[in-house]
Amino acid sequence: MDRSVGVDQINQPSITSCVLLAVLAHPDDESFGIGGTLALYAQRDVQVHLVCATRGEAGEVSPEHLQGFTSVADLRVSELRCAAGILGLSGVHFLDYRDSGMPGSSDNRHPQALAYQPLEKVTADVTHYIRLLKPQVVLTFDPIGGYRHPDHIAIQKATERAFFAAGNPAEFTDGSSLPAYTPQKLYFHTIPRGMVRMGVFILRLGGKDPAHFGKNGDIDLASIASVSFPTHARIDYRPVAKIRDQASACHESQGGGNMSVGLMGWLRRTFGSTENFMQAYPAPANGHVARDLFEGVS
Ligand SMILES: [Zn+2]
Which pTM value belongs to this model? Predict the structure, then answer.
């Protein structure tokens, strides 16, 4: 199976040497979470690459969306290919693990389920792509995986470990003879807490339980609201907001076309002019909030 989706053919490679690498878990994470940031840097001629650890096999998909596809994975890769073209990504690279689903689902028990792989195995894969693509800036989820999805947490741990291992020639030599490479900055995407708390408030007002949010009722918004992360970079994506919405709409089987309606649409319009990041490395300056992830990159 092809590990890379060749979006290079869609978007001309740029002559810049700036590279941004996002390491995420499922098709749609790139658009729903950080689509504005990815689109913005692609427009600035940064080579934006995505490592996607799974093909989203455990996603809930209605039968009409599956027409013309042989599997959920095929459908979701196709949706990702659509989004990647719109966002202007230079490459999409799969790690070929399997979507673990939410805790307690039968997908947890699949031998390839991402969340249940040894950390060192996933780290070796991410290290390979850091050495291959040579990004100055690496992005991934926050330590609770945004909304506590086990796959998000697993790939966050592996990416953080790989970020520091990639520059050490003694670690994860995979026989590919790629030289060690040290990226300069590591950021974790964080969901704005104001948005989460507002969601909790509105759900309670409507008599709904914020501990069972989302299409499948498996997102505990109340628990997410109780954890805070500092904001060290705030990316204003308004110049590419339409691109972000179009890319989200590619993920039709995951409700991407509904991102601008209902409670989610209102929250996105109210809080949605920036994407926020916590700087994991190097240690951020006290109180400083960067407007550019490449600030200070040499
Ligand atoms: Zn995800």
Answer: 0.91
